[in-house]
Amino acid sequence: ERSLKPSSSNPVHKTTSPIEQSYLSITMSLAKAVGTTFGTYMIADYLSNYLQHPTQSMDYGFLNGLIGREIDTKWWGTRTEHIVGVAACLAVTDHASQAMFEKVMKKPLCFAKSPATFVAHTFFFIFTGVTAYCGIDAALNPAHEGKRMEAFKGETYNSYVGTNTAWFEPYVPVAVAKVAGTAAGNSWIGGSLLPATLAYATVKGVGWTDWGNKGLNDHEMKLNGLLKK
What is the pTM of this model? Predict the structure, then answer.
């Protein structure tokens, strides 16, 4: 007579070990944290454009059609490529850098307890993240064909110059807390979005001279009536 008791070899009834459960939990938590950071950085990059170019029309590539603007290039060289690409790279390097510093320090990375170390982490993850994006863009962007290494070297230098302006980022939540209270400084807007938005603006603005009518691509020059006839 066949037993109705489920077989232990049946994958449906297979249970995971405590180690596997712990690994899965850590992986899911990390994925969620990186995803949240990715989203925050995309929003920050988008908002920083209003600080850098308050009266100019930006080129968002394939998204231009949604806001009634002419589409030139759908992806490469557009603000949308920058928003998505840089945020993805920074989300990875931010969490990787935190893990690296915490492993060396053997304690959680905290600005209040280790301000100098946290500032070093800030410089490191921004520079490596932005430079990684520059490398990917230099390697894949058709506009750089025949001069890819030259483009990468130039963009890496710009990344270094711009990153040096972002030292203030960890101090922004502290300033917000003093002005608007601890809850505001610890909030997503005051503790994450605002610091990132300001850092994006200075890194791009200083590193790439991306202010006002400067730093615009050819299509943006056209959208803003700045092309010489």
Answer: 0.88
